[in-house]
Amino acid sequence: MRPDRSRRPLQVALSREQITSAALTIADTEGVATVTMRRIAQELGCGTMSLYRHVRTKDEVLDLIVDAALGEEERPDTPSGDWRADLYRLARAKRTVLLRHPWLSHVVAGRPVLGPNAIASTEYALSALAGLGLSMDETVRIINTLHAFVNGFVQTEIEESKWRRHPESEASEAREDDWREATLPYLQHVIESGRYPHFTRMVYEAESSPDTDASFEWQLERVIDGLSPAVPS
């Protein structure tokens, strides 16, 4: 009896670009942990082994999708000559890309990123700080400080957004209102104890749901202000 070939995946023409695009879609819609060779093959309608003609490992696929995502940064090819304005522009572009791909901030924080788009972004940042009298170590520290701020801010944004999503897909305000109602007796006890006057003032006076865009801009300005003394005038 001949083997049943009807269930075999159709042979399709593949390229690294197609594999990258499929893997990026999976990461964005299902989470980066679900990006496996089998899942990519399923998405493309091909056999798993056929992927290995184009990519060697899952790590190589991760490198490809990270660099593809970083290639979406919208910034000029060359800096303007105003290092502060250039770092503002770079930070905003990075935040936009990291929010578009919620898995990205965690991945880039834990692995070397050396694809062509990543290197182009680094070159832009290095060029923005060139000619200012900084040593290369000082330049790298400034860039790393900016990246750490943007990554950390975005990770907090993403996790808070996840927390606010109600399991039954109700409005995000419902989840937050439920939390407030549940914690109100405890907060009242803390406030009435009189032991935490500054915390009490924060509860009554601080914005409960500050605008994240405004918060990002305020904090980014303070970060760049803090870096300014390191740049020779």
TrEMBL record:
Pfam family, one: TetR_N
One MF term in the entry's GO annotations: DNA-binding transcription factor activity
GO biological process, alphabetically ordered: negative regulation of DNA-templated transcription
Domain HTH tetR-type: 13-73
UniProtKB keywords: DNA-binding, Transcription, Transcription regulation
InterPro entries per UniProt: Homeodomain-like_sf, HTH-type_TetR-like_transc_reg, HTH_TetR, Repressor_TetR_C, Tet_transcr_reg_TetR-rel_C_sf
DNA-binding region of this protein: 36-55
Keyword hit for Zinc-finger: no
Protein origin, superkingdom: Bacteria
Coiled-coil annotated residue ranges, if any: none
Stated name of the protein: TetR/AcrR family transcriptional regulator
Native species: Halostreptopolyspora alba
